[in-house]
Structure formats: C-alpha cells, structure tokens
Amino acid sequence: MPEFKESEKWKNFGIKELKKEMKKQVYPDGVDFEASTCYHRLVFELFFYATFLVIINGQDFKEDNFAQVGNAIFGEEYLQRLYKMFDFVFYALKPNGRMPQIGDNDNGRLHVFAKQEVLDMRYLLALRAIFFKEPKFKIEEFGFCEEALWVFGEKGYKIWQDL
C-alpha cells in the first residue's frame, strides 16, 4: 500500500510479528504447539497465506520465485519452519489424503476455497509442491486441486504441470 506514508512501517511490523509468532506457536520440528491436527492446519493456513501475500507483493517477486523471495524477506529460519509445517502434513496424512483426527477440531479454516471433508488436507501438499517447486510433493493420485488454482492462479497450474 504505497499510497500510505506509513505502509512500509506497517509491513515491517507485520513481518516481525509473524516471525515472532512462528517461533512461539510452532516447534522447530514444524508441529503446532496445540498438538491438534486440525489446529495445525488452521495455524498453518494463517502463516502460509500471510507469508504468501507478503511475498507476491514484494519488489523482487517474479511470478514463481516464492521460496527465494520468502527467504529474503522472512529469513531462512522462518521459511524452514513453514516448510516443516508442510512436512508434518505430508507424513501425517493417510494414503487417502485425510488427516487423522488427533486433538481438538473446531473445523477452523482461514479460507475455504472448495467443498471437502473436514479432514481432507490433500490440497496442502499441492500448495507445498508449487510454492517450493518440489516434484516429490506432487501426488498424482490427488491431482491438481481447486485451492491451488485460487491461490496461485494459472501460473501455479503451469508450475504443477512442469513438476
């Protein structure tokens, strides 16, 4: 929001708070401190989408260099924890793409882009594959998901196809 003289200050404050909260709420292994699979998803979405918006609005963003710009803005430690949050999802998902119900579940989500079962978290792997450009997280059986199209647009679909 360059039209506001304080916008740079607001952005820097937001980044600082995200980094502080990431350390506070997410263990170094990438698991949310609430110890609930569904709260993990909610907290992950809060961090991921905020991080994503900062990145795509950054000066150095060039359509697909998400992780590179993320490291420059947030630092390697922050992005590594975000990556490990994805790791937890990858290793905890059942083969059908559903997350085991562990701990509390209030169905909390930041954005619901497509209708799906509460424990269906396949879309998180597609977001990871595109954001980090990692073919091993492109699970062919799960296919490309509507969430990824809403988040990354056509460019995301192209990245997905090229993985």
Automatic annotation (TrEMBL):
Coiled coil: none annotated. InterPro entries: Chondroitin_lyas, Hepar_II_III_N. This is Heparin-sulfate lyase N-terminal domain-containing protein. It holds the Pfam family Hepar_II_III_N. PANTHER family: HEPARIN-SULFATE LYASE. SUPFAM superfamilies: Chondroitin AC/alginate lyase. Gene3D superfamilies: Chondroitin AC/alginate lyase. Residues 1-109 form the Heparin-sulfate lyase N-terminal domain.
